[in-house]
Design a protein that fits this description.
The chain is of the alpha+beta class. The protein contains eleven helices and five strands, in the order H-E-E-E-E-H-H-H-H-H-H-H-H-H-H-E. It starts with 5 loop residues before the first helix and ends in a 13-residue tail after the last strand.
Length: 355
């Protein structure tokens, strides 16, 4: 199964959401929905669980790929972007591995991406996302300028239109892919992952029955992260791009728009880092009006990216959590029967995912 097909790019963009979630100080666990499976992360320990066509559950444990972080890369306005890159790399690897498990007929079949395949997949995914959520809204805004209802790229109205189109494309994209059967199942596993994490955080017994009682929505979900990135980008672009053109404006009209697009791409580093810090701040807030205001948009959006899972999907999520926790798994976690295919290179004791 190729990960660079449009349908699988859609699956990657929708399924990778939770990997970006900052883990709570209590649980240190985050997750991601996969093709017929779930990935769970506990610090440096990553576990993948997938239900194969025969009906059995297989699991695999490995180390979380991490960029070595010096003092500079740990700064608040840079760290979020590093987390985003790590999430993309690990998410693509896990999604590819789950696709192999979901289709394979014999154990031990290798499904790891080679370096050039990983780079190609990441490149296509990034180009797709940039084209859809950066270039296309800009072109729509340029059309609004052409018909006379917007100012130029150096003005505020252009970027108000740009922001409106970004939101419409984002929501329309999620709605469109939700009609694909494979993506709907990914969204069900997304809901299963949330329910199991809720059950774990409540410190009670973790079974498909108890997990099913929890909400499929979670305040630290990557859907909220994406929404924060989108919202912050609209505000920052509306301020920073006109400010740039007050300092320097190219004479060529085409060059002006190229500069604007390149500047927006460069701003993804501080924007993603700001969104990361904001979602961590929202997660730390005690329940109340301020917390509800920050969390509500993301929870509403999660109604589009999660569906109610069935018992078999909850079982897979529990297996992923069991392997992610390793020796730290509580006795209250009751996992169904499964086969651990490999735990090579998986850390015995997970380190804190929060730095």
């Amino acid at each position: 199964m190729s990960l660079i097909s449009p349908s699988n790019l859609a699956s990657l963009l929708s399924a990778s959401e939770d990997a970006a979630c900052p883990q709570s100080p209590q649980a240190m666990v985050g997750g991601q929905a996969l093709m017929e499976g779930v990935m769970m992360r506990n610090g440096d320990r990553l576990a993948i669980a997938v239900r194969r066509p025969a009906g059995d559950i297989v699991a695999e444990c490995r180390s979380w790929f991490s960029i070595k972080r010096g003092p500079v890369l740990k700064r608040p306005w840079i760290k979020g972007f590093i987390v985003l890159v790590e999430t993309l790399v690990n998410g693509i690897k896990a999604l590819n591995r789950s696709a192999v498990f979901a289709a394979e007929t014999k154990d031990g079949e290798s499904g790891d991406l080679k370096s050039w395949q990983l780079l190609l997949t990441m490149g296509v995914a990034i180009v797709f996302a940039v084209g859809l959520f950066v270039v296309l809204p800009h072109l729509f805004s340029l059309f609004m300028q052409w018909i006379g209802v917007s100012g130029g790229v150096e003005g505020l109205s252009f970027h108000i239109w740009d922001g409106l189109f970004k939101f419409c494309i984002f929501l329309g994209y999620i709605l469109a892919i939700s009609f694909l059967p494979d993506i709907r199942r990914v969204f069900q596993y997304h809901g299963a992952e949330h329910k199991v994490i809720h059950a774990f955080e409540s410190k009670g017994t973790i079974t498909p029955t108890t997990a099913a009682l929890n909400s499929r929505l979670h305040p630290r979900c990557g859907t909220t992260f994406l929404l924060f990135v989108l919202s912050i980008s609209i505000i920052v672009h509306a301020i920073a791009v006109p400010l740039l053109f007050k300092i320097w404006t190219p004479d060529n009209a085409v060059l002006k728009h190229v500069v604007a697009l390149l500047f927006k791409l460069a701003l993804i580093i501080p924007i993603s880092s700001a969104a990361y810090e904001l979602i961590r701040f929202a997660a730390r807030l005690k329940d109340g009006l301020a917390a509800d205001i920050l969390r509500m948009p993301g929870l509403v959006l999660q109604r589009l990216t999660t569906y109610e899972p069935d018992e078999s999907q909850l079982e897979v999520a529990i297996v992923a959590l069991r392997e992610a926790l390793g020796a730290e798994a509580p006795e209250s976690l009751v996992a169904p029967a499964y086969t651990l295919l490999s735990d090579g290179g998986c850390p015995a004791n997970a380190e804190s995912a929060v730095s």
